[in-house]
Amino acid sequence: MAVGLLVGTVAWSMPFATGTAVLLPARVEDIAPDHKVTLLAVLTAAAALVGLTANIVVGALSDRTRSRLGARTPWIVGGGLATALFMSLLAAADTFWTLLGWWCLTVIGLNAMTAPLNAIVPDRVPVARRATVSALVGVGILLGNALGAVIGAVFLDSPGTGLVVTGIASIVLAGLAVCVAPDLSSANDRPAPRPTAGHLLRSVSFPKGAPDFHWALWGRLLLVLGYFMINSYQLYILTDHVGLSKRRAAAALGINSVFFLATAIAGSVVSGPLSDRTGRRKPFVIGASLLALVAIALPLVRATPAGMTGFSCVGGLAFGCYYAVDAALMADVLPDQAARGKDLGILNVANTGGQALAPAASSALVGLGMGYSPAFVGAMGACALGAILIVPIRKVH
Question: pTM here?
Fold first, then answer.
């Protein structure tokens, strides 16, 4: 099952990274070079808000799905098919608004995979092994991000082809994931009431009387916000802040993604099992948030290719530790085990919400006219506050 989770996670994280890290910023720059920072913020924020809603709704619907293939499998496969279709259409977009429309639909497909995959950990993994299994999920995210950046760099001169290739890979990996780790049949489970508009509206409501849930949510949101304030603009930072050509910047992104992956795997394989062995989650999550702050500080202090390589290496170590343990922490603070998919979808608001706010925050800070330095400082502040918000959690040590 753990291998299936890893493969399924790569199925959604790789196309997402290919688009957001390289090919979409490159296409936006081609379409409107004078407004690229603002338009990329609009594109990313709009798609993230669409993804936020899709993740919560799909999570709620997958909780209620009854089939011989299980509750999660139909959504994972369907999401892979939708991703492949919309990325193929995205490849032909030649205006900003068509780019925006097809990317938003692609993000719906990606979240149709993400929400049910997130629910598998609390569905099928005992509490004592959650951090270890979550470490493999974290490796999947990191591997997908690295592969996405490499594919984006390879296809920088032919972004349409890169999008099509990535979409095809997504459905192949999604199919492989459900074959390697088939879900248990839910056909004989107690029938779920037919979902209504009122039920779906209630699905997007946040649980009450669950303070640990909320601390975890906001802590994650701020870390994602801080990191993606820099990560989403890496191509532009390398060209405008560091001074590389577009071609050299893309090559640097590809190389740095390999460093990111190597350090992330190292952090993940150590922190996940160690968290299970010690029974502690919070120190690892807090430490990873602070380490992400250090990663962001490096290119602020050194606006050089080496500074951005340091960002990738230290950032990889931080997110390897973070992803290995954070998913287990999130599963441990769920207030309603009967609505795992829905509540994990709400917790994933931290991912999509952070990514939605990050480009807007960076764009506003860059708009101050002092270059990218204010964006780095703001990102560091978000990571620091994210670490602080994990401290009050009581249910998890």
Answer: 0.71
